[in-house]
DNA sequence: ACGATGTTGCACAGTCGTGTGCAAGTCGGG
DNA sequence: CCCGACTTGCACACGACTGTGCAACATCGT
């Protein structure tokens, strides 16, 4: 009565590996063919179709995973923080770890007409972000010529810009998250010194918490 | 001995229109087919091949034009300004007018392996930008945790982010250029009030100069 | 009206990607 | 050792796009 009868151990591993590799491959080229993905996963095209009935289905599975990852990272980062600037910093640092998946999501949303619902699925994240920005602008923490909603675009833009810089070796990966957070908060009108201090504090708390949890 | 013998008036107009429409179409979908472009230009696919031997040739022509536009806008904006922050502001405002073409260039560069030389062709612009950033960081005008070269990525990111916001109707087109400039300068560490004042002054000078030139 | 130039519509070959079918493998556990 | 689940390698049909050839226009200047 085993639900996973026999050699499906390899099968599951394959499925997972295909998903992982597909993320990397689609990140490199959003139009990557099934063959490219299959070969990159060390598997034949036909095998991929054994796990996913169509290209769209494969992408759908990836999207599902990615949305969940982004959503949970954002929620975890925001959790229990009232101060707008601090909430933004913490959430941004948390999302930074899954930024590649976030980037892929928007890259796919721009392409597939089918997948244009992606932005809706990230609705919670965006709304939550908007609310942080709105509060920050209202209490004067943030200063910007841009309307609240546009700050979300800018955050995205800076996030992806630094990611690309990291890919090109212009920015060291370890510093990237903090630099991104500082840069965005500064762009939002927070004085540079204050942004630096805040982000440093939040980031250090993050590593401390993680060390406690892990060890 | 007329170099443009006869009905090439329409022909030239067609060629130009195809180029213009292709920019818009490729901006909407970087993988737009020759048929899509042709129809959008009110012409049959075969006609496009009458002007450009291949898809790559068409794109090449577009790239040529776009690089020239971006380069000249940037140069004109920078011209004769010594102060780093002011130079950045002025150049950014000038480039804003051709930002769609700039965006298309990078969009194409990411795609076509053939066209990966685009970033090289924009070398002058990038180097010039780097030099402005470097000077600003050195004299303390700019403050950022990011290395000089990464500021270029951030500028690009903010530029495109606001463009997208304008497309989505989140930001009014008239204010977009100024807001972009202010936001970037603020991100580069310039105090918000100072950035606003500087950009307003530079932008007003721009319109004044243009009015004088036009009228 | 004529001729050069450009446009159109159609047919065609070639390439690439998708999705499916099927027979011959391979691998692990009972 | 053998059974069942998975994988492989090939076959195919199908559609979309590119690039070319050619004959039938349309249009403008002379």
TrEMBL record, chains A, B:
<protein>
    <submittedName>
        <fullName>TetR/AcrR family transcriptional regulator</fullName>
    </submittedName>
</protein>
<dbReference type="InterPro" id="IPR001647">
    <property type="entry name" value="HTH_TetR"/>
</dbReference>
<keyword id="KW-0238">DNA-binding</keyword>
<dbReference type="Pfam" id="PF00440">
    <property type="entry name" value="TetR_N"/>
</dbReference>
<dbReference type="InterPro" id="IPR050109">
    <property type="entry name" value="HTH-type_TetR-like_transc_reg"/>
</dbReference>
<feature type="DNA-binding region" description="H-T-H motif">
    <location>
        <begin position="33"/>
        <end position="52"/>
    </location>
</feature>
<dbReference type="InterPro" id="IPR009057">
    <property type="entry name" value="Homeodomain-like_sf"/>
</dbReference>
<feature type="domain" description="HTH tetR-type">
    <location>
        <begin position="12"/>
        <end position="70"/>
    </location>
</feature>
């Amino acid at each position: 009565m085993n639900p996973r009868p026999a050699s499906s151990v390899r099968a599951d591993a394959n499925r997972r590996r295909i998903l992982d590799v597909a993320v990397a491959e689609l990140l490199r080229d959003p139009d990557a063919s099934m063959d490219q993905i299959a070969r990159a996963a060390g598997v034949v095209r036909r095998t991929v179709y054994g796990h996913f009935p169509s290209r769209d289905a494969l992408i759908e599975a990836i999207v599902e995973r990615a949305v969940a990852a982004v959503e949970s990272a954002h929620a975890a980062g925001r959790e229990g923080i009232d101060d707008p600037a601090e909430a933004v910093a913490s959430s941004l640092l948390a999302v930074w770890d899954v930024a590649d998946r976030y980037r892929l999501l928007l890259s796919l949303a721009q392409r597939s007409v089918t997948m244009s619902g992606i932005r809706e699925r990230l609705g919670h994240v965006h709304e939550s972000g908007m609310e942080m920005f709105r509060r920050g602008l209202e209490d004067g923490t943030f200063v910007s010529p841009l309307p609240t909603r546009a700050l979300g675009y800018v955050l995205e833009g800076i996030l992806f810009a630094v990611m690309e810089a990291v890919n090109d070796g212009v920015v060291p990966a370890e510093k990237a998250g903090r630099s991104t957070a500082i840069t965005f908060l500064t762009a939002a009108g927070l004085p540079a010194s204050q942004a630096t201090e805040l982000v440093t504090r939040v980031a250090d708390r993050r590593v401390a918490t993680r060390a406690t949890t892990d060890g």
